[in-house]
Amino acid sequence: MIKNFLITKNKTLKEAMQLINLNGQKCLIVVDKKNRLIGSLSDGDIRKFLLKNYKLEDKITGIFNENPKYIYKKNLSEKKLKELFLKNNLDIVPVINDKKIVIDVFYPSKIFNKSVKDDTNSKKIIDLKVIIMAGGEGTRMKPFTQILPKPLIPINDKPVIEHIVERFSNQGFKNFVISVNHKAEIIKAYFKELKFKNKILFIKEKIPLGTAGSLRLLQDIKKSFFVVNCDTIVNLDFKDFYDFHKKKKNKITIVASAKEHIIPYGVCNLSSEGRLKNISEKPKINFLAMAGIYCVEPDVIKLIPKSKKFDFPELVLAAKLKKMKIGVFPINDDSWLDTGQWQEYKKAIDVLG
Length: 353
What we know:
Elements: E1 6-8, H1 13-23, E2 27-31, E3 37-42, H2 43-50, E4 71-72, H3 78-88, E5 93-96, E6 102-106, H4 108-111, H5 119-122, E7 130-134, E8 154-155, E9 158-159, H6 160-169, E10 175-180, H7 184-194, E11 199-204, E12 225-229, E13 232-234, H8 238-247, E14 252-262, E15 266-270, E16 276-281, E17 284-296, H9 312-321, E18 326-332, E19 336-338, H10 342-351
Parallel strand pairs: 1-2, 4-5, 7-10, 7-12, 10-11, 14-18
Antiparallel strand pairs: 2-3, 5-6, 8-9, 12-17, 13-19, 14-17, 15-16
């Protein structure tokens, strides 16, 4: 639907992220009230400004590209469209009439039946390992996890961990490592019964090692790799995430969900003398929450202590103390499901149903 591609400049970053999530093409066309073309806005543009401490309620004015590529309806042809996509590596192309009103939008799968950024790029990262941390007890999900290990809690017709593996597998990843401890044999038995086609290696923690500790058990890691919590499901282009990680030359890149929390009270702001300055009625707080998925360079592993519980935030802190470069990759809150807590688990059943 064309309305999922159009946004006016008075809309917010949050509204833009929600629209991009709906259209699935990583870009929007900015129009005026009469739907006349005035610009374009990509998810990369939004990410860049969120990392500059812009807030979700900030307007997109001054953020979007005011010189977008487009094609006039009178010049429209399949050949010209393909040339425009290939020459400029575009996500979408608006079609406009003589009054610059947007009347249609084309995107790669609509004209090529596949992405312009095709498998030739994906093959560069297809051998990267995806490490799934599945050793925890899942205390937030009791009593389910007293019977089933957390990774095997079902969401509709398949367990959480299978949703995670499928999302990577569908984007060309074939090499998976699953770190197990609690009810490990049940997890192994599930994948054996499933007869999964992709390569899966299990590493067994002798004691619970947290969300990063078992990475110390990995052998012969020479390339960047992904780390995913077993209760994290994200709607994410992993190639884009990896490219961002490499472009920024990060040692660790954290996927972070852009959240907005409204405090349901009037908040008292005090002076240095302890007197009331003013009251903020139901203020909004914007923050980036760690979503439980990371891209990591192999030399980070040496920072992890042997045979000791060690969580990922501790690893990030250790890397920062070594002055390693840590990056953040913001995503829309609607793109992240934390199935390790009841409220989000119920939401996941609806979203993935």
